[in-house]
Amino acid sequence: MNKAISRISTLLAISGVAAIAFGLAVFIWPGITLEALLALFGAFALLYGTLVLGMGLYLLANRSTDWVPYTLSGLAGLAIGISTYLFPGITAIAVVYLIAGWAIVTGIFEIVAAVDMRDVVADGWWIGLSGALSVVFGVVIAVFPGTGVLTILWLIGIYSIAAGIPRVAAAYRLRKFASSVEKTSGAVRSAVGAVRP
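The structure corresponding to this sequence follows.
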């Protein structure tokens, strides 16, 4: 179990850093074109989808019951990332709905994953927070899609950074938990070895 937690925390940290980097890119290049934004978002969705799918498949291979939300979220990320490259001439409004749909789907699966993790680690709520932010963001831009491309860009940047930070925090907490489990199990092994004749 300890190895699985360490692996998940690493993948979670990478996805969080990728989200923060994507958000910062939007602020660094505020004059970014729609085509460039779409390519950047597609790359981010593909990376995120690959990492989260990897988490799901790793959990499945280790016979964990928590593999479903990760796998479905990863597949959703891959599907949306691929679709941005299959339809490069997509309109601004379609981009908004694409990003909104991805945020809502990802957020729901992250909330489910956080609920599943509550028995393993107490700080799994960080992932739930990231999921809740994703759902709120997705709903806001889906309800107000015509607020202007610049406003949407700023919202995307803020969302990516705000959702990436809890992922990195959750990864840190999981890594810390895995380390404490390793120390405890090492102490138990030493104590058992000392007791044996």
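The longest helix spans residues 149-195.
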